[in-house]
Every structure is written in C-alpha cells, then in structure tokens.
Sequence to fold (136 residues):
Amino acid sequence: MLELSDPARITAGIVLLTIVGIESGGLFMLKVLRGRVATTDLQKSFYRAGHAHAGVLVILGLLCVLLAEATNLTGFAHWLAATGVLCAAILMPAGFFFSAMGAGRTSPNRAVVLLPVGAVVLGAGVVTLAVGLLLT
Fold:
C-alpha cells in the first residue's frame, strides 16, 4: 500500500474536490457551445482551452503529488516537484479565462501574461520531479 505524507494526502484530497469546479465549468462550456451564452470566437477558443488545461493539469498534478513521495527531494525542490503542476493548473486556465473576459472581446487582455508564467511553472515542476525521480 502506498503511504502518503500528511501534506500529500491533504493536497490530493483538496485537489480531488476541485474536480467538481471543473465539472461545473463543463456545464458553462456546454452553454457557450450551444449558443446560450453570447461569446466571440476568441472567447469560445479561450474558454475551451482554459477548461481543457484545468482538467488535464489537475490529473497530471495529482500524479505528481504521488510521484514526489517516491523521491528524496526536500524543501522547495520537493514542494515544486509535488505542486508545480498544480500551480500551473491554476495559472494557465486563469490566463485563458481572465484574458477573454468582457463583452465582445476579440483580443486577449493583459491577463494573458498568466499563460507563459504558468508554462514556466509547469516546466519547472515536471523537470524537478523528473530529476528527483532519476536521482533517487
């Protein structure tokens, strides 16, 4: 049986609860795609991308929480390996959603900066975890 540290167990439990939020975002996406919510092409694309990134990154993030427990990483490196992808799961969807908000928006606003920031955090998290797994 896999034994998780208390922080990993609590993090995984909280993250599993966020799936309900992602699920409700799916209902919003159905309204958008069925034309029940007035959106521009940019908004449709960005909302779809935000929803997809949230779902995929949360699942990958849960896996990273588990895999980080199998490393000898400590301190910030362990935190980054375990939760970097989960941080990206907040930053990247937020970049898609917030940068497309506003009636009739046809180009992203300044919140689009969250996308490359999230991509850097994602990369840092997975590389740290990979190195931790390879060196353990």
In short: Helices lie at 6-33, 41-68, 75-100, 114-135. Residues 6-33 form the longest helix (28 residues). The CA atoms of residues 94 and 114 lie 7 Å apart. The mean pLDDT is 95.
